[in-house]
Design brief:
heterodimer, A: 112 residues, alpha+beta, Arc Repressor Mutant, subunit A, three-stranded antiparallel sheet, two-stranded parallel sheet, 18% strand, globular, B: 902 residues, 28 helices, 53% helix, 15% strand
Chain lengths: 112, 902
């Protein structure tokens, strides 16, 4: 029995998508799979929320999308990061680091 | 905004999403079946985890936010339903088109004449510097806000308040650039002018401070771009060439930036020249040293420093100005004045007003009429909106069952209200587009009404971005206004009652519709009264006339000093022409005046009157100088005494008393109850003036500045006066136009290079002088007629509706023995209530608005009871007639038909 997976924290889905796409362009299904792989199957992504998120990021100008041949030979919609998206990723990583750092600090304070 | 465009490509977006999701599904199913799950089971599971319907909706919300999507669907629904209702749609569109088109056209003129800031750097920091309270002391010439040059020069030192100060005056000169001399308007400006405004050259250079350093220092001109293009074909080799102003050679050093037409909206200067060259400009002020003297001949505009407010600058100037005033009384040329006068003079102040639009004669003349017309079109648009609201309510009634059904199926009131609002917004924007499309035509019509020499060059009948923005804003506002009442009403009657109603009658809103009609009656009465007042003004002025016989009368003007004549030569030319014109075979009689009448130009001053005691007039009196026979040529009656004759003429320069003729108004105001003949008077009000001109005649009142003008006037004999320019009046035999060639050749024989200014019939001049009145009367008249039509349609509509609803009741009444007359009365009572309610609303508004229009009226007060009563009668009669048709129909209802209606 695999350990129970916890749902992805609110608001972090966008950041994870940007992170995945910063490595290489991918289509929706690929992103869903990679999300699971990267997070060692501990994070569960509600697949239904992936596509609205992708379209939202595209609308904001952080992603660019285009139809290309996928690894199976069929046409798939591939997303890639725009320069604006790359900047946004740094911003989000930064604020995430500060948030988790702060939370850690509080925990250590409490355990001492 | 980019989302908005998604609406138009939603088809391809949907297809893309379908493909994308299909790819995901297929891959996932393939992966699961590879893991050994049966395909049917895999498909079921994938569909569950993805939640396709939900995903689609959420993605659509990303493309277009929810409200936008709903709104766009509403618009589509509205467009469809309006297409199916062409009669309704056309009526609404026509109402809105009229309302929006009219207000847009008037706004275009308001914007161009009043609101538009000058095309210069940071126009909002410009202020006009004006000298308040000194009219009696210093000699003022020409138009308003004039200042002496020394103040301008010294203001330039106030660098802690201003980033720069400029002064300018409008001049009329003859410019000769190659061909014949052209009479043109131009500006004479300080060397700081262009740099303070921040306007650069299109070619060559602009006027610089060095050009203005000392009298005669800068014989240069900068041409305006328009003049350069229109008259010189935009020739690039114009720089460095010589032109003649009068007969002074000047060098063209540059062409100003395109689009810059000086600081006076309405004037189109041909060129600019530095104030150092004032001698060339022939300003006709009589002051030999304009750069140091007391004559006020320029307007001053200053650019505030960015950290200084208007009030701070004004306060900051006063200490310096106090000292300057003290100082100026000691300078040579300052008039000897009484101690009282002196105290008044020293108490005068400088006043600063924000002037991002520059200084404009056209604006002074037109701003009030334009604001009035703007307000009138606003009321008209309000009326159109009310009409549309009424139509919507009527349509809402017809759609009562549909709306009731939608409510029953769970639609919220707000949702249905929004749908109705979408209807009205869509129609309003369509009306706005149509209105903007017809606006240029309407603007061209408006400009044709205005005096040609004022408006034709300065105003344009084109659509600007500002104008389109205005039309769009007005359309949206109109849509909201006309849609608001109906959409608030939507479903207000309650579900059960609206479904229970029999087909056809629908739900009520009768009270709201009556309120709307009452308002319409009030609005249109206001417009009707305005129209009546302006019509009476115009007819009154036409009936009054200028006080002289215009038919067969022709006039022309020459200004020889503008062409380089010395005063003596000019005077001799005028005398020679006067004699020659009298001798023309076509001339029945002829005479000459120093200043033309009916052109708004004038010379005025106080008059000192010596009877048994010495008095000074309490206001300005207008002066003119005329040759013998002037009054008989114009047909002005001589009431007492005699006309001027050869005895009164005196060679120029020879001193001594000369005689004067005054008009009836002067006698009435200053010499009432005594014999005016022999009373001594003189021009000017200061203590050193010696009244030594005996009054030898009294003439009937005649117009001087314009037809409206009913001023006190004093005439001196022409040849005793500075007769350096003149207007000749000729009473011709036969058609005046036929005399024009002989006049032209006469002037050409004397000097082929002297241009004739304004050769016109007096009929034409009277017409021009009344152009503003005609504009107001024609426009307010057509607005009034439109308003009447709109409100009659409104009354008819609501009465028909009421009658339809009450058919049954009336049928029962008639069946029970009521007479037809009583049925008629029953219905008409409603109409009378609305009409009298509207009149009661309108009257206080008319009283309040009266003050605003009073100055535009003539011979009638704004609250003239007869006019108001007549307008109210016309409106009431029309409205009753409109109500009578449905009432008559109701009274003819046969009881059996009415009862069977159910």
């Amino acid at each position: 029995m695999p350990p129970p997976r916890f749902p992805i924290p609110q608001g972090t889905l966008d950041m994870l998508i940007l992170q995945i796409l910063s490595l290489e362009p991918a289509h929706g299904y690929g992103i869903a799979q990679r999300l699971e792989q990267i997070s060692h199957s501990v994070v569960q992504v509600n697949q239904g929320s992936l596509y609205p998120a992708l379209h939202r990021l595209e609308q904001k100008g952080w992603l660019r999308a285009g139809w290309k041949q996928s690894e199976t030979g069929r046409e798939a919609k591939f997303y890639s990061l725009t320069p604006a998206g790359r900047r946004q990723l740094t911003v989000e990583k930064d604020s995430w680091a500060r948030l988790s750092g702060a939370v850690n600090l509080i925990f250590e304070e409490g355990s001492r | 905004m980019s989302r908005f465009f998604n609406w138009f490509r939603r088809g391809s977006l949907e297809r893309g999403l379908d493909r994308e999701l299909q790819y995901h599904l297929d891959r996932r199913v393939a992966d699961l079946t590879a893991a050994g799950i049966p395909e049917a089971e895999a498909r079921r599971r994938v569909a569950m985890e993805l939640g396709l319907v939900q995903v689609r909706e959420e993605v659509r919300d990303v493309w277009l936010t929810r409200w936008l999507r709903d709104f766009l669907y509403d618009l589509r629904y509205s467009a469809r339903s309006l297409r199916h209702n062409p009669g309704f749609t056309a009526t609404v569109l026509l109402s809105l088109l009229l309302g929006i088109g009219a207000i847009t056209a008037i706004y275009s003129l308001v914007d161009q004449v009043i609101l538009h800031a000058l095309p210069v750097r940071e126009p909002e920091r410009l202020v006009l510097v004006d000298w308040k309270g000194s009219e009696g002391v210093t000699y003022v010439t020409g138009s308003s806000n004039l200042m002496p040059y020394p103040i301008c020069r010294e203001l330039q030192q106030q660098t802690r308040l201003f980033d720069g100060v400029l002064c300018r005056a409008e001049i009329q000169v003859n410019l000769r650039a190659g061909g014949d001399p052209l009479p043109v308007a131009a500006e004479i400006v300080s060397g700081s002018y262009f740099s303070v405004l921040g306007v650069g050259p299109a070619l060559g250079r602009i006027i610089e401070p060095e050009d203005d350093a000392a009298p005669g220092a800068g014989p240069v001109v900068v041409l305006s771009y328009d003049f350069w293009q229109a008259q010189l074909g935009g020739a690039a080799d114009i720089i460095g060439s010589k032109v003649l102003i009068g007969n002074h050679p000047m060098t063209v050093v540059g062409v100003a930036a395109a689009g810059f037409r000086g600081v006076d909206v309405g004037a189109v200067p041909a060129f600019w020249m530095p104030t150092s060259m004032y001698a060339v400009a022939n300003l006709d002020t009589g002051d030999e040293d304009l750069l140091n003297g007391h004559t006020r001949w320029l307007q001053i505009l200053a650019r505030l420093r960015s950290d200084v407010t208007v009030a701070q600058a004004q306060a900051g100037l006063q200490p310096w100005f106090k000292a300057w005033l003290q100082d100026s009384t000691l300078r040579p040329g300052f008039p000897r004045i009484s101690a009282d006068h002196r105290r008044e003079y020293l108490a005068t102040t400088l006043e600063l007003t924000s002037a991002p639009q520059g200084h404009s004669v056209l604006r002074e003349r037109l701003s009030q009429p334009l604001w009035l017309l703007f307000a009138a079109t606003g009321v008209l648009l309000g009326l159109a909106c009310l009409n549309v609201a009424g139509l919507f309510l009527a349509r809402g009634s017809a759609r009562g069952r549909e709306i009731g059904t939608r409510l029953a199926l769970g639609a919220s009131r707000g949702r249905i209200g929004r749908q109705l609002l979408a209807d009205s917004l869509l129609l309003a924007v369509a009306g706005g587009v149509l209105g903007a499309a017809v606006a240029p035509l309407a603007i061209r019509g408006l400009i044709a009404f205005l005096p040609h020499e004022l408006a034709a060059n300065a105003l344009r009948a084109t659509l600007s971005v500002r104008l389109l923005a205005f039309a769009f804003f007005v359309s949206i506002a109109a849509g909201l206004l006309s849609g608001l009442a109906p959409s608030l009403r939507a479903g207000g009657d309650g579900l059960v009652s609206s479904l229970r109603e029999r087909g056809g009658t629908g739900f009520g809103g009768v009270r709201l519709r009556k309120a709307i009609v009452t308002l319409q009656v009030a609005f249109s009465l206001i417009l009707l009264i305005g129209a009546a007042l302006f019509l009476r003004t115009l007819t009154g002025l036409v009936a009054k006339g200028p006080g002289f016989e215009t038919s067969g009368l022709l006039s022309f003007t020459i200004a020889p000093t503008q062409n380089g004549y010395s005063d003596g030569d000019a005077s001799r030319l005028v005398r020679r022409l006067d004699e020659q014109v009298r001798a023309l075979p076509a001339a029945r009689s002829a005479a000459t005046a120093r200043f033309a009448v009916l052109t708004d130009g004038h010379i005025s001053n106080y008059v000192t009157i010596q009877t048994d005691r010495r008095t000074v007039s309490d206001g300005f009196v207008n002066f003119n100088a005329v040759s013998p026979g002037f009054f008989s040529t114009l047909g002005v009656r001589l009431l007492a005494g005699r006309d001027f004759d050869q005895r009164d003429s005196r060679p120029p320069g020879e001193a001594g008393p000369h005689s004067a003729i005054v008009n009836q108004a002067f006698v009435k105001r200053y010499l009432s109850g005594r014999n005016p003949l022999g009373v001594l008077i003189a021009k000017g009000g200061s203590s050193n003036v010696k009244p030594n001109s005996p009054i030898v005649g009294v003439v009937a009142d005649m117009s001087y500045r314009g037809v409206r003008d009913q001023s006190e006037q004093v005439f001196f004999p022409l040849f005793n006066f500075d007769d350096t320019g003149a207007t000749f009046y000729i009473k011709v035999r036969g058609a005046p136009e036929q005399a024009i060639p002989s006049i032209r050749s006469l002037v050409r024989q004397n000097d082929p290079r002297l241009p004739i200014l304004w050769i016109r019939t007096l009929d034409d001049q009277v017409n021009r002088s009344l152009s503003t009145e005609r504009l107001l009367a024609a426009l307010s008249g057509s607005f009034g007629a439109l308003a009447l039509l709109l409100s009659l349609i409104g009354i008819y509509g609501v009465m028909s509706f009421v009658v339809t609803r009450r058919t049954r009741e009336i049928g029962i009444r008639v069946a029970l023995g009521a007479t037809r007359a009583s049925a008629l009365r029953l219905v008409l009572r409603d109409a009378v209530t609305m009409i009298s309610g509207g009149v009661a609303l309108a009257l206080p508004c008319v009283a309040a608005l009266g003050k605003l229009v009073q100055s535009q009226l003539f011979g009638v007060t704004a609250t003239d009871p007869a006019t108001i009563a007549a307008a109210a009668m016309v409106l009431a009669a029309g409205a009753l007639a409109a109500a009578f048709v449905p009432a008559w129909r109701a009274s003819n209802v046969s009881p059996t038909d009415a009862l069977r209606l159910d």
